[in-house]
Amino acid sequence: MGRRIQGQRRGRGTPTFRAPSHRYKANLSHRNVEDADVVTGEIVGIEHDPARSAPLADIEFEDGDRRLVLAPEGVAVGDEIQIGVSAEIEPGNTLPLAEIPEGVPVCNVERQPGDGGKFARASGVSATLLTHDRNAAVVQLPSDEMRRLSPECRATIGVVAGGGRTEKPFVKAGNKHHKMKSRGSKYPRVRGV
């Protein structure tokens, strides 16, 4: 009798290979602003999410809405953030690419207008807005790939917080164990079968 290879074990769908998504805090996406040019909110907390490497900012908006967004470097509890076409160019504010000056680092960039953000979401990364005109905006992603996107795609100003995460060693196997518990992968790997 042979052994089941790893891919066959993964395909069964046991809890060993399933991500514990019931523990994840939020499905992150940009807030839609229909009527107003800009919506203002205040950061009321910074939270950890097992689903991702970056911290989240808990924002309470002036209309009572409350949601979690990726926290850029430099924001703190009590800071005010803006979302909309006429928002200021400050870390944490979300605007369409057409309204952002060239050369500014951005994160959580949308692939299609309104999809909530797909690019540059890991801790410590950012994309750079290179050029834009009426038809397209060119963004350099963290992988150095150049992407032509719609100028209506939104992005958050700044670099995602948590950039020094990889510099601190795990030191103990238990710390690595707790990290891997929140991922959908088998751990530890003790043999190459």
UniProtKB/TrEMBL annotation:
It holds the Pfam family Ribosomal_L2_C. SMART domains: Ribosomal_L2, Ribosomal_L2_C. Keywords: Ribonucleoprotein, Ribosomal protein. GO terms for molecular function: RNA binding; structural constituent of ribosome. The keyword Transferase does not apply. Transmembrane segments: none annotated. GO terms for cellular component: cytosolic large ribosomal subunit. Residues 11-83 form the Large ribosomal subunit protein uL2 RNA-binding domain. Residues 89-193 form the Large ribosomal subunit protein uL2 C-terminal domain. SUPFAM superfamilies: Nucleic acid-binding proteins, Translation proteins SH3-like domain. The keyword Ribonucleoprotein applies. GO terms for biological process: cytoplasmic translation. NCBIfam families: PRK09612.1. Belongs to the universal ribosomal protein uL2 family. This is 50S ribosomal protein L2.
